[in-house]
Specification:
Layout (H helix, E strand, L loop, with lengths): L7 H9 L4 H9 L5 H7 L4 H13 L3 E8 L2 E7 L1 H4 L2 H14 L10 E3 L4 E3 L1 E5 L11 E5 L5 H4 L19 H7 L2 H11 L5 H8 L3 H13 L3 E4 L2 E4 L1 H4 L2 H14 L8 E5 L8 E5 L19
Antiparallel strand pairs: 1-2, 3-4, 5-10, 6-9, 7-8
Helix pairs in contact: 1-9, 1-13, 6-13
Organism: Mycolicibacterium rhodesiae (strain NBB3) (Mycobacterium rhodesiae)
Keywords: DNA-binding, Transcription, Transcription regulation
Protein name: Putative transcriptional regulator
Length: 297
């Protein structure tokens, strides 16, 4: 009997748990379309950029268009699937602004065109309209959910010192730009805290788990006590990033039997779907109304 197909969580971890994917999409949303645009904006080697553009095209986040035949030249345009990552990027932007003070250049404020205010996005429950945190939301496996189906099979490429992801989100890339790091964050949010549980449930090599746990702790996302690894306040603030990534994945990578993860908002008892709202006018945010990300979002 064949193994069950990877679910939406596995597809998300395999794709977004890579330090270059979000950065390439980010630059696409900021106007990069041609190979030279990406190469100029990112400290990325030719081979890695070529591979990422190919994988993002294969996954439907970018669409390749030929604009010259002799010699052949193509541009890469962000698709609806790629563009719909804007809530993830917006949540990362907010987290980096508040929790990572050592940016070489401070991140700009975000302007909500609908109310003309400089704003912060609020994670709000679509069912009841109340602001929610990770403490208000319970996650449970859905019909296609299990740890065995949620771990991507592909190995994450280890970066070299000369091939380091930078850009607007340096610490996010450090802690989430690896499938095991991303998976550890997901596991911690559902209550896992022991090394042995991380290793057995995720099926990762012990060395990989130890390496990523040390990075998460060094960045202040995890704290250790009693041989357990628990999320800090800084780590818990990543809640909107993880939920927007999960919702993106379950929108685009549906399973015939149903979702991989189901979220319940304990405050209202209804299913939890995260809506980002403006803290100035309380209206739901739309990508096209956020000037700090990109005018054309």
């Amino acid at each position: 009997m064949a193994d069950p197909a990877p679910n939406a969580v596995a597809r998300m971890l395999g794709l977004l748990g890579d330090e270059w994917t979000l950065l390439v999409v980010q630059q696409g949303l900021l106007g990069a379309t041609r190979y030279g645009d990406f190469r100029e904006r990112l400290p990325i080697s030719n081979s890695v950029l070529t591979a990422r553009l190919r994988s993002l095209t294969d996954e439907g986040l970018l669409e390749r268009h030929s604009y010259q035949s002799n010699p052949p030249r193509s541009e890469y345009v962000v698709t609806d699937r790629g563009r719909s990552l804007w809530p993830v990027l917006l949540s990362i932007w907010e987290w980096e602004r508040h929790w990572v003070p050592d940016h070489s250049d401070p991140l700009p404020d975000m302007r909500h065109r609908a109310c003309a205010g400089d704003f912060s996005p609020l994670a709000t429950c679509a069912s009841c309209g109340e602001v929610a945190t990770d403490k208000d939301v319970v996650a449970q496996w859905g019909p296609s959910g299990s740890w065995s189906r949620s771990i991507p099979a592909a190995a994450t490429r280890r970066r070299s010192g000369s091939d380091s992801a930078a850009g607007l989100f340096p610490q996010t890339m450090s802690i989430m730009g690896n499938r095991w790091g991303f998976a550890l964050l997901v596991a911690a949010f559902v209550g896992m805290s022991r090394f042995t549980d991380f290793q057995s449930q995720l099926g990762a090599p012990p060395g990989s788990i130890a390496d990523r746990l040390s990075i998460l702790a060094a960045n202040g996302v995890f704290e250790t006590s009693d041989s357990r690894y628990r999320l800090t306040e800084k780590g818990r603030a990543l809640f909107p990033v993880l939920v927007t990534a999960l919702e993106w994945a379950q929108r685009w990578y549906t399973a015939p039997e149903g979702p991989a993860v189901e979220l319940i908002h304990t405050t209202c008892g209804g299913p939890f779907r995260l809506v980002l709202t403006c803290d100035q006018c309380s209206e739901p945010l739309r990508g096209g109304d956020v000037s700090a990300l990109q005018k054309s979002l």
